[in-house]
Amino acid sequence: MGFLAGKNALIVGLASNRSIAWGIAQAMHREGAQLAFTYQNDKLKERVEKMAAECDSSITLPCDVGSDEQIEAVFTELKKSWDGLDIIIHSVAFAPKVELEGTFLAHATREGFRIAHDISSYSFSALAMAGRSMMAGRQAALLTLTYLGAERAVPHYNVMGLAKASLEANVRYMAYSLGTEGIRVNAISAGPIRTLAAAGIADFRNMLDYVERNAPLRRNVTIEEVGNTAAFLCSDLASAITGEIIYVDCGFHITA
Ligand code: 0WD
Fold first, then answer.
1. Which of 157, 173, 176, 247 does the annotation list as catalytic?
2. Is ipTM > 0.95 here?
3. Which residues make Cβ contacts (< 8 Å) with residue 163, sequence separation at least 6?
4. Could you give the number of structural domains in the chain?
5. I need a labelling partner for 119 at 20 to 30 A (CA). Which of 65, 100, 164, 241 fits?
6. How remote is the CA of residue 126 from the centroid of ligand 1, in Å?
7. What is the pTM of this model?
């Protein structure tokens, strides 16, 4: 029996078989969790349905995390299939592409800042608030994905770095808010991985090469490795870990 047997997990942010959310879904499925998925829009519906089926899941629901109505609707629907929820995975980020080119102040706009923070940080708290009643009394866990650009000025990461800094603070405040209910909140700070979202970041190839040359393990991380850590963090094996940012980056962040 896997260490997530009996757990119900909602996965938000699956876009392709390269998505970090896919690595997480596969690890959680392997460890015995029941899964439900959301998809951002109709373009992704069929693909997400197929991938869900590979994890023995038939629960796929539309959700643009910029919409409170769509977030509410996810939990209304989920309650029809499940009597409770143990895990929410938030694997979503967005900033207008132009803001991820050149240096931060070259393209910064008030609207770009608002969108990046809304979709990449606020949406995590919005999911927690909407899912809170379903998670009551179940030792539930929430997990989001962040990146080193939250703490260091990484070339081209720009406004997304600000949004990830907000997300990391969000993890701590959410952990404090939900701790009295036994609900844990953590983030994985993943090393760079070639996904659809990463394709939006200028010069991404150089980031991968740099990590490969300089990380203690001299290689890049895989979605499977992020998935395994996510499964552990959302399981009862991690019952005293909350409010943490856990690095899954082949050790890159410790280097000078
Ligand atoms: O190097 C990387 N790939 C890293 C990613 C390193 C460290 C962290 N991360 C983070 C990302 O910032 C993000 O928070 O991991 C998370 C997942 O990213 P991913 O797996 O790299 O990217 P992807 O497979 O593209 O999934 C993210 C998806 C979107 O894909 P696209 O590329 O179409 O934007 O987030 C979804 C969307 O499907 N998404 C939304 N979902 C609901 N509502 C929204 C939205 N408004 N916007 C984006």
1. 157
2. yes
3. 93, 95, 116, 117, 120, 121
4. 1
5. 241
6. 17
7. 0.98
